[in-house]
Amino acid sequence: MLSGFEAQQSIDQVYAQIRNEEARLDSALRAASDDAARLRQERLNQLKALAGLKFKLLQSGALARDLDAAEQRVKGLLERARAEVSAASRRRDDAHQAILSAEAARNGCAATLEAAVRALKTFEADVASRYAADPGWLALKTELETAQNTHDEADKKAKQAEDDREKKKIPYESDPLFMYLWRRRLGTSSYASIFLIRLVDEWVARLVNYREARANYAMLNEIPARLRAHVEDLAAALTTAKQRVAAFQQEKTAAAGGAPLQKKAADAKAALDAAEAEVSRAHQSFEAAEAQYRAVADNGQKGVYAQAIDLMVENDSRDDIATLFREAARTKSDEDRAIVEKIDQLTKGIASADRQVGQLRGSLSEAAQRRAEIERARAEFLQRGYNNPGGGFGNEASIHDVLGGILKGVIQGAVLGQVMQQGYRGPQSGWGPRDDGWAQPSDWGGGRSSGPVFPGGLDDGGSMGGGGDDFSTGGSF
């Protein structure tokens, strides 16, 4: 069985691995972008060299001055972009380190709590054996068992009624005439219409046997709602019974001298909650730093870098540049040929670098999506209280498989929540020492119900009446 704390650590590890992958991809993207920019700058230099050989094009000096100005402007734009991205990257890295530090502190608090709970559990086990035959305890035990069984049976009947409703409502809702009259509220005090329309509605009602069908359809919807409301009332009674049992256990434990152990465990839980809150704040700070970095980096890629690239492309498309190439092709000197070949190589290198930049951007976007999914799964994990001591997961292999799939990008993060919900086993409630040894299930809160405490072989119950599958209103269904 995988404990809640171990499951949380596994989620944190996958988050860290994805974050490391993001950092690697981001570093590669920055390097590829710089490489593409460097190649473009080198191409400008080669164009200047080629123009220098063709002195006729440089008589006015306009081309040389323009190329020099373009080179200097490109250099300034790229240096500014690199500085801004570097500063934002450092802030993001610092925020990630804060997450790691907060998680390390949280893990220490969790270990302290587990040790405190184990000590309390051992003490409670000894105390429980002393009051096993206590009449007050036996009465509370019976009360809790009765409340649990009553709740479970009512919940089963409510679910059966809800399932019946979903199946049996189909013929009603498939008949457009019946649903027209139902939405018009015919047969109720809220129905209102002029005489002629009322006359037509009444005629349609007789045609589809609406009066009888309406009563059955109304009952079909009302019975599950009433049963579910009853289950909610019983759930409140069950919670009260659990709290009474917990209070009895706590009182007996304290009377036997366990108050210091209880306080130690409570203090450890409070410290863990505070540490977990710090982890959450660290994650929020990182997300803010990540958003700031992405804004700066995207601005660099789409703004400053784009300006530099556009400037270089603009110079490539100048008429005098085209003339320069034609002149080089006409004269075909060795120097011309060497520079033109170099420019061709640089052009191919730029195209290759641009393709790599595009691929890296796609990979980085996909990694960021996986990190966001893990972050959502982590938030749900905490919201459901899966990290509370005593709880755990019986499907450890499935959880690790899903985490591995998320890490590889073949499984979405939402699947993790479903698998954990299916395999979670919460701290036992009831009497005697529980898995977590703690007699205060209501104090820790935030956790989901762990299911029936006293699972029994209840029958499935009968199906609900009020409109069977073979019912017909006489309309289109």
UniProtKB/TrEMBL annotation:
Disordered: region residues: 148-167, 426-477
Biased composition (Basic and acidic residues): 150-167
Coiled-coil residue spans: 11-42, 231-292
UniProt keyword annotations, A-Z: Coiled coil
Residue spans of biased composition, Gly residues class: 458-469
Protein name per UniProt: Uncharacterized protein
